[in-house]
Amino acid sequence: MRFAGDTTLPRVMIVAGEASGDLHGANLVAAAKNLAPDLEFFGMGGERLKAAGVELLFDLEHMSLMGLVEVMSGLGRAWTILRALRGALKERRPEAVILIDYPDFNFMLARTAHKEGVPVFYYICPQIWAWRSGRIKLMADLVDRRIVVFPFEVEFYRNHGLEADFVGHPLLDIMPSPRPKAEVKAELGFDPGRELLLLMPGSRKKLVKVLLPTMLEVARRLRERRPSLALVLARADTLPEGYLESCLDHGPEDIRVLAGRTHALQNAADAALVASGTSTLETALMLTPMVVIYRVSFVSYWLGRLMIRTDHVAAANLIAQERVVPELLQGDASPERITAELTKIFDQPDLRAGMVSNLARVRERLGRPGASRRAAELLLKTVNGRS
User: Fold this and answer.
1) In this structure, how many other beta carbons lie within 10 angstroms of the beta carbon of residue 22?
2) Given this model, what pLDDT does residue 386 score?
3) Rounded Cα–Cα distance for residues 41 and 296 (Å)
4) Which one in 19, 21, 285, 336 has a CA-CA gap of 20 to 30 Å to 50?
C-alpha cells in the first residue's frame, strides 16, 4: 500500500456534490476502511462523508444547484471550489480520485487528475446513456474505472468499446426489505386502518419551494374526497429542522412532518408523491405505488429535453425500460393531473397490483446487496496498482 521509503498513509480523494452521493460515498469509504484501515480520504461531501472519516475541504451545500439556468447563476462559486480541489489534488497526490455522479463538475476535475497521472475511479457513473451521450468520449479518455449501478449500463459501455463493472445498487445495502404496511404504520404512530399518502418534495430548498405548494394542493384535494386520508411529509436530512413546517400555512390540517424515518415512511405509505430523484428509487424498492413529478425553469427544461435520449426520467421506469409509474413534468405536474393519477392508485385495485408487481421486478433487476463492498474491492485494486 506504500511506496518504498514513504511513511505517509495512502490517500484517496473523493468528491460528491449531492446528498445521494454523500450517502453512497460514505458507505464506500466505510467498506474501504474495513478492508484497508490505513486509507485516508479527503475531498468534498456532506455530513455522512464527514462522519465516515473524510476530511472535507468543502461541504456539498456549496453545490446545491438545480437546472441548467440555476447552475449558471452559481458558476462563480463552483469554479472557485473546483480550482481549490485541483490544487489539493496536485499538492497531496492521492493514489486515486473517486468521483460520484455530478458529471459537469466532476469531469473537469477528472481532466486534472488525468493530466497528473492520478487514476480516476467513477462510482455511480453519470447517466450518459439517457442524455448528453457525447460525454462517452470523456469517459473513455479521462476515467480509468467505471463502476455502474444499473445492469443495462454494462452493455451500453461495451457497445462503445469500454469496460464497466456492475456492482449492484448501493441502496440495497441500506434499504430494508418491505414489510406489511399496517405493521409499519402502527410503528410510526399512524392508524393502520387509514390510507396514508406520503409527500416527498426533495432534498434542496430550491426544489421544495417549487414543488411543495403543488403537493399541498394535491393533498388538500384528495383529503376533500377521502376525509380519512392520513398525510405525512418526509423531511430530508439536508433541510433544516422546522423548514417544512414553516411552509405549511396553506396546507391541509393534520399533516405530519417526520425526519429520519424516510425508509419506514416509504414502506408504510399506500401511495407517494415524489420529486424526481433518488427518492423515487427508494420508494420503488419499498414496492409503494407513486407519482413522480419535477419542475424547473422553462429554459432549463427545454435545454435539457434537447439532450435527453430516453422517454423516462423516473428511476423505476428507466430500469424497467417502460412506464411503470406515472411521471409528470413541468406543466403536466398540475394539481389536477397529479390528483387524478393518485386517485387511480387509491381507487383501482388492479392498477395498483400491477404497479406493485412491476416495482418488484425493478427491485430484482438491481442485483443483490453488497455493492459498497464490491466497489471498495475494485478501488483497492486501483490503489494497490499504484503503490
Assistant:
1) 27
2) 61
3) 35
4) 285
Identify which of 158, 161, 28, 201 has the alpha carbon closest to the alpha carbon of residue 98. 28
Cell of 227: 376525509
- Supply φ then ψ for residue 261, to 5 degrees: -130, 30
Cell of 387: 503503490
Please give the DSSP secondary-structure letter assigned to residue 226.
Answer: -
Instruction: Decide: helix, strand or coil at residue 86.
Output: helix
User: Could you tell me which residue, 68 or 165, shows the higher pLDDT?
Assistant: 165
Burial of 352 (0-12, 13-18, 19+ CB in 10 A): middle
Q: What is the largest CA-CA distance in the chain?
A: 74
Compute the average pLDDT of residues 140-156: 94
Query: What does the pLDDT read at residue 304?
Result: 53
Q: How much is the pTM?
A: 0.80
Q: In what order do the strands lie in the sheet with 327-329?
A: 256-259, 230-235, 196-200, 271-275, 290-294, 327-329
The cell 464490491 sits on which residue?
Answer: 374
Category of 254 on φ-ψ map: left (φ > 0), alpha (ψ -120 to 50) or beta: left
H or E element at residue 298: helix 298-307
Per-residue pLDDT at 16 exceeds 70: yes
Distance CA 387, CA 376 (A): 16
Position 190 scores a pLDDT of: 97
- Beta strand spans in the chain (E): 11-16, 40-45, 55-59, 96-100, 120-123, 145-148, 165-166, 196-200, 230-235, 256-259, 271-275, 290-294, 327-329
Question: For residue 253, what pLDDT is reported?
Answer: 83
DSSP state, residue 336: H
Q: How far apart are CA 160 and CA 73, in angstroms?
A: 34
How much is the pLDDT for 299? 47
Sequence letter at residue 48: R
CA–centroid distance for 352 within its chain: 25
For residues 99 and 126, which has the higher predicted lDDT (pLDDT)?
99
Q: Which residues contact 86 (CB under 8 A, 6 or more apart)?
A: 109, 112
Q: Which amino acid is at 254?
A: D
Q: Does residue 313 surpass a pLDDT of 70?
A: yes
Question: 133: which 3 cell numbers?
Answer: 451521450
Q: Per residue in 20-40, pLDDT tens?
A: 899 999 999 999 999 999 999
Q: Which of 316, 333, 326, 317 is nearest to 352 (CA)?
A: 326
